[in-house]
Fold Adaptor AP-1 19 kDa protein.
Amino acid sequence: MSGFSAQPRAHGEERGCERERDSGREERVLKIHFVLLISRQGKVRLTKWYSPYSQKERSKVIRELSGEIISRAPKLCNFVEWRGFQVVYKRYASLYFCICNDKEDNELETLAIIHHYVETLDRYFGSVCELDLIFNFHKAYFILDEILLAGAMQETSKRTTLRLIGAQEDLVEAVKEEASSLSNIIAQATK
């Protein structure tokens, strides 16, 4: 049994695949079902789900894939067929970056997305390591959300992604300063 719940589909619609029409021709768009970052010890460092899974299914998926990927020999290819899907993974230092998509999707495109995400993290953190992702997980999610939207590649420019993350950080700082000044005003008014 697959991890996906049965969803009604319109005639001609493929599961997990969006189609775009451009001048009368159809073009397949890569659809990512989930992203996992797993340490060599099997600890999950980041998960992002773009297809519906219950919490129980998510735990089972993580357990199955982490066991299968971590135990694979380094010389084997980075593509794993799993439950009718393909999982593309790449190991960087002590982390495995894994993306699950449809079997028909381009594995090399998926590897390029993983590499793009790692390079963006590297530029943001300056030689990213596992501890950066543990203590700044929210920033790793911000970056992933700028790159991928609803399971599809959204932003391909590292520079634009980093600029948008910087703008988010500026906004958060402005809100913190405003909240601090408001709490000071309230504290003085209640004295």
Q: What stands out?
A: Helices lie at 55-70, 107-125, 130-135, 137-147, 158-189.
